[in-house]
């Protein structure tokens, strides 16, 4: 299955969980294009 | 999800088409992941942001869900995410995300 291949990815990371840039690296390795990456902070 | 990010998600859905987008979350807890997932599928549950009443139905996953991990290059995942994964309650996150996807996602 290919959930990400050829898709455009919106990344909502979390400062207390997984930050946006770390997710972006993974998503790019799966063949998706990152169109937006952010790291939220709930504090 | 913060209001500025909701606005951006809405703009990208209009620009690229909701069926072409996947939202990947990195929330630290199942509840936070579920709230963000609900926001980009069924609309903002807090009725505060631009996605209030907007049912985009976007495909959405948490980065630590097994079906996402399968897609990533293993070495990249190990380097970037696996340390944090160890302190997350992945089972709780999977449960929340699956429930939201089953109910609200239009593009699976």
Largest sheet, strands/sense/barrel of chain A:
2 strands, parallel
Helix coverage percent of residues of chain B? 40-55%
Are there runs of chain A of 5+ residues with pLDDT below 50, and where?
Answer: none
Low-pLDDT regions of chain B: none
Q: What's the SSE pattern of chain B? A: HEHEHHHH
Write the layout of secondary structure elements.
The complex is a heterodimer of chains A (43) and B (108).
Chain A lengths: L7 E7 L5 H10 L3 E8 L3
Parallel strand pairs in A: 1-2
Chain B lengths: L2 H14 L4 E5 L4 H12 L17 E4 L3 H4 L4 H7 L1 H4 L4 H15 L4
Parallel strand pairs in B: 1-2
Helix pairs in contact in B: 2-6
Q: Which key terms come to mind for this protein?
A:
heterodimer; A: 43 residues; alpha+beta; two-stranded parallel sheet; 2 strands; B: mainly alpha
How would you portray this structure in words?
The complex is a heterodimer of chains A (43) and B (108). Chain A has 43 residues and is an alpha+beta fold. Chain A has one domain. Chain A has a two-stranded parallel ribbon. Chain A has one helix and two strands. Chain B has 108 residues and is mainly α. Chain B has one domain. Chain B has six helices and two strands; from the N terminus they run αβαβαααα. A two-stranded parallel sheet of chain B has the order 1-2. Chain B is globular and about 35 Å long. The A-B interface holds A 1-5, 7-14, 16-20, 22-23, 25-27, 29-30, 32, 35-36, 38-40, 42 and B 1-2, 5, 8-9, 12, 16, 20-29, 32, 36, 40, 58-59, 61, 63-64, 67-68, 70-73, 76-77, 79-81, 84-85, 88. β1 of chain A pairs parallel with β1 (21-25) of chain B, so a sheet runs across the interface.
Overview in brief:
The complex is a heterodimer of chains A (43) and B (108). Helices cover 23% and strands 35% of the residues of chain A.
């Amino acid at each position: 299955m290919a959930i990400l291949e050829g898709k455009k990815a919106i990344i909502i990371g979390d400062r207390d969980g997984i930050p946006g840039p770390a997710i972006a690296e993974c998503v790019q390795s799966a063949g998706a294009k990152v169109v937006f990456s952010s790291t939220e902070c709930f504090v | 999800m913060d209001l500025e990010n909701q606005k951006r998600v809405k703009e990208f859905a209009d620009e690229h088409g909701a069926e072409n987008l996947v939202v990947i979350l990195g929330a630290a807890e199942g509840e936070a992941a579920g709230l963000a997932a609900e926001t980009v599928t069924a609309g903002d549950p807090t009725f505060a942001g631009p996605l209030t009443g907007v049912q985009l139905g976007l495909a959405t996953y948490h980065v630590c869900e097994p079906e996402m991990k399968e897609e990533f290059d293993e070495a990249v995942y190990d380097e970037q995410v696996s340390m944090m994964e160890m302190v997350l309650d992945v089972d709780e996150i999977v449960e929340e995300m699956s429930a939201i996807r089953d109910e609200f996602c239009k593009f699976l």
